[in-house]
Amino acid sequence: MENDNQFHTIEEIVDRLSLLDFYCIKSGTTADLVILGGSGILMQLAINKDEVFRPTQDIDVNILSTNDAEGIYRQLKEANIDVVGGVMEVPPLEDFKETDSLYELDMDFSNIRVFVPTLELLACCKIFSKRQKDLDDLESTSLLEQCDKDSLLEMVDEYRANLLNEHDPDLNLHLLDNILAEKGI
């Protein structure tokens, strides 16, 4: 399946997840997934803050659990949903499994359960990234303004202590204080 469009709304993301659920039903695969990246932020901001986030080109997920690892990878590929597991140094995957860090989407899926992390956890993914696109999101969207500042900074300090190379000059982390100051946060 070719994905040559962008996702602008929750409905468009849910439609793609419904397609994944259909494939999983056909194959007997069950899975718990967590949505990350721009699609996770788009969903969190729309659901909990009534805010709009930029369109996203893809849906990124991590697999929390499944009854068939090979099957879920096939179904995700068929639905054109990307798995990002193992790409990030911090936050660690186990933080995406903590129930107080996740919001379960209340959808009528049969074979998948879908979770979205807190905005603070999603923001940390961008803060500890080296990608310009993530830096642009920190600077030009309302993501940081919508986070609980104390929770966010506590998480940043915790993750900073776990970095292999905290002094890597390419980390967006090193620009965080300036971005917060510019935004008046």
End-to-end Cα distance: 42 Å
The total number of structural domains is 1
Given the structure, what is the number of helices? 8
H/E series, N to C? HEHEHEEEHHHHH
Total strand segments:
5
Task: Give the class from helix and strand content and strand pairing.
Answer: alpha/beta
Q: How much is the average pLDDT?
A: 90
Shape: globular
| Beta-strand content bin | 5-15%
What characteristics describe this protein?
8 helices; 185 residues; alpha/beta; DUF6036; five-stranded mixed beta sheet
Structure description:
InterPro entries: DUF6036. Pfam families: DUF6036. It comes from Bhargavaea beijingensis. Residues 29-165 form the DUF6036 domain. This is DUF6036 domain-containing protein. The protein has eight helices and five strands. With 185 residues, it is α/β, with parallel strands linked by helices. It has one domain. It is globular, with a radius of gyration of 16 Å. Strands 3-2-1-5-4 form a five-stranded mixed sheet. Helix 4 (119-127) packs across helix 7 (149-161). A hairpin with a 7-residue loop joins strand 4 and strand 5. The mean pLDDT is 90.
